[in-house]
Amino acid sequence: MLTAMPGAADTSASAPDRPDASITALTQSKKTLEKLLRLGIRTEMDLALHLPLRYEDETHVFPINDAPEGRAVQVEGVIAHAEVLLKPRRQLVCQVEDGSGSLCMRFLNFYGSQVTAYAAGKRVRLFGEIRHGFFGAEMVHPKCRVITRNEPLSDAMTPVYPVTAGLHQQTLRKLISQVLNSPHDPSLLSETVPAGIIQRIRLPGFRESIQMLHHPPPETVAVSLQNRTHPAWQRIKFDELLAQQLSMRLHYRQRRSRKAPRLVRHPALHDAFMAQLPFQPTQAQNRVIAEISHDLDSDHPMQRLLQGDVGSGKTVVAAIAALQAIANGYQTAIMAPTEILAEQHFQKLNAWFAPMQIPVTWLSGSQKKKDRQTALATIESGETMLAIGTHALFQEQVNFHRLGLAVIDEQHRFGVHQRLALRMKGMPASATQAPHQLMMSATPIPRTLSMSYLADLDVSVIDELPQGRSPVVTKLVADSRRDEVMERIRHVCGQGRQVYWVCPLIEESETLQLQTAMETYETLCKTFSGLRVGLVHGRLAAPEKTNIMAQFKHGDIQLLVATTVIEVGVDVPNASLMVIENAERMGLSQLHQLRGRVGRGADASVCILMYQKPLSEIARKRLKIIFEHSDGFEIARQDLRLRGPGEFLGARQSGIPMLRFADLELDGALLTAAQAVADEMLNHYPHQAQQHIRRWLGQKTEYLRV
Ligand code: ADP
Ligand code: MG
Predict the structure, then answer these.
(1) Ligand 1: nearest atom to the Cα of 348
(2) Does 369 map to a domain?
């Protein structure tokens, strides 16, 4: 049985919404505290890690005539003349002179107090960008301070922090300085990484780096601060990545420390299975089969993610893993996200296992109650060795006799991290026993992303498609050329092939989406009165869906109108044309998944992406990517670049701590280093490892306690 862990998906529970005592001691103002909270600042550590966005160099004064252009600079002079002009609009204008030259300081919005302060004869320091206009040099809305002669210059670059409305730079600077100079907790900035390691990886100390980033001395190279390549930045990013690695690996070790049934490979049964397969596995399939087989042959639970592009042949890999469990007298559960997919798995596995006298049981929401009860009873008695159904079904009352392996297919559909909420029970007696787990995903995850966010799993990749597949030709067609598309459909069906027509995704309204699908269906029925047209959508009852999919599979339906329910896993090799309407509305991975439904047979297949003009910038980019690339990994990489890791992983709601400083694309080397150091620390410095996790993740580690 699978149970959802209470609170596992609830992110708010993991972060208390109150500031620390140490922070409340810093300021009396309730308003300031509220605003700090809005920035996610609750603790002294949060303040210390609230690092500047950029810096202003007020350590240096330029002569007005010699100041560089194109960037903000500091100049100093005496106000020679000041007046409030009323035309062309009300403004405060002051002429400032410094002996080398003069410039005009201009304020379009200003207070009465400024008019009084910036009077002729006053000495001022200005910070801003000098522009050369029609009336000579000028600075519009500079930062301006009235000073006395020989007032000392700032001895550090001035940090500019991310702020929120109503919270001033000054306030933040003061609070942060206070914390850095006299923290409530004296160990606030203490070193968590052992000295030997720090030396070896040649990074500066933590305290030193934090101090440096908040108050860089005048000689600091501005560029390295700005683009975050400065060693101090490197150290912070390393620490952040290290914290992520530590917590993920720790989690991995905890789960791995449980006991699992050891499932040894059974060569005779394996060979018998392979002998009756209608194809030879690819090299990539053989490699991952070996990896999984090795994991199963261990008395600790496998936690492996199998990644493979659509059509790469993950199902047979799962079947062979199941066989290894069955050969040892243990049951396997295979979970799919939809009924359509669960049934398809059932058909396929049944065909492979029936000749071996291994019964496969199907659990379906649409089953008659009696059939369902029989199925449940055979699972509980152990008569059934292999059970297939939707995740939802397994999460209800399914008791296994001896569950050895759980396979979770198309796991990306649930958000990468919902897997954290899945826990298997139904193991023989002992609570420390866990089944082996194999997760499968058709969303290829770029390497650095998988190294970081999936560090609590072992990953196998099928990076090769079975031979004999012809690549899908992708065409971009404006909606206005619908007639040509219709011709094409007629032609394809005339040759005995089949066609998918995917209706537009309407995110705002499922009803509207449904309505559109029905209308499209009716229109297409009229247009193609000689063809057998079918419709499948998410609102259909399960048996009806199954029935329609079966008809399509057998060729009784030639043109299948579908909503995006067919996105996942459906396998009909005779379908060689897919039309996707309003493709501009869909995400990249969805388009890639959909397109993967064709090109499964030996015939050349075509995917027509119809779009409606005008295209937004992002839609244009997406269509260009999907048009130019067919490799799922490359598409995923570009998608990641377009959307950032949070959106890509769907982790926004899942509560996984996202990276704030490190950039997976730029900081790959730091990630590799953090990975090695994490293992070393967990093995040899567990105390420091804990400290480091606590510093960086604090309460956010809750989600890991699955
Ligand atoms: P996915 O990885 O998308 O789940 P499937 O497991 O559904 O892919 O496999 C797609 C199709 O390719 C299925 O019809 C499957 O039987 C077939 N297939 C799998 N492996 C091979 C192979 N090595 N050679 C030929 N066909 C294969
Ligand atoms: Mg699949």
Answers:
(1) 16
(2) yes
